[in-house]
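Whether sequence alone determines local backbone shape is best considered at the level of individual chains. When preparing material for the folding task, we compiled for one chain both its residues and its backbone structure tokens. The sequence in question and its structure tokens are set out directly beneath this paragraph.
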Amino acid sequence: MRYILFTKQECPYCVRAIDLLEKQEKDYDVVKFDADQRLILEQMKAAYQWGTVPMVFERQDNDIKFIGGYTDLVEHLGDG
């Protein structure tokens, strides 16, 4: 199982999500969106009807599940 995080540079909850995955020794990848890629990130958020970052996904083989944001990840991992 692997986690995929879509993040922005200036996002404190993105940093917390990465720290949580590190703490629990989970495998993960981070896709950081720069300011000039804002439109792509906004389109992704609109497609999932999600207003914030990070956007956290769980991947197992070819099955990808949208978890939510930081607090959803905390709940998902049982660390809250």
The chain has one domain: 2-77.
